[in-house]
Specification:
The chain is α+β, with helices and mostly antiparallel strands and 104 residues long. It contains three helices and seven strands, in the order ββββββααβα. The strands form three sheets. The protein has a three-stranded antiparallel sheet with strand order 4-3-7.
Length: 104
């Protein structure tokens, strides 16, 4: 099995430990996809990720006009820094606490 590597923030990382995230110009994450699934499905370039998210040229052109960009990150970075926080600071919603017996 061949292991592909990618340059992520100046470090060589195994591509199968990476994911692509799509961001709006404000920084919000719109979508995410792992870079490698099994051995037969690989998204190695931003263009391949864009083709995965936006199947037609028309959709890709619309995404480009909207300023959407693809960024390769490690899954380690995703778990440590992003997780469920897909909104930028401008669009972050305040959380709420459910009224449950444990919270009383």
């Amino acid at each position: 099995m061949t292991i592909l590597y990618a340059d992520v923030e100046g470090q060589q990382e195994p591509l199968d430990e990476c994911a692509w995230i799509e961001r709006r110009p404000c920084g919000c994450i719109v979508s995410a996809v792992v870079a490698v699934v099994e051995d037969n499905w690989t998204l190695a370039t931003p263009e391949q990720a864009a083709e995965h998210w936006h199947r037609t040229k028309r959709e890709r052109d619309q995404a480009a006009r909207a300023g959407l960009t693809a960024e390769l990150i490690t899954m380690r970075h995703y778990r440590k820094n992003i997780g469920a926080k897909w909104e930028c600071e401008q669009h972050t919603k305040t959380g709420y606490v459910l009224d449950t017996p444990e919270n009383r």
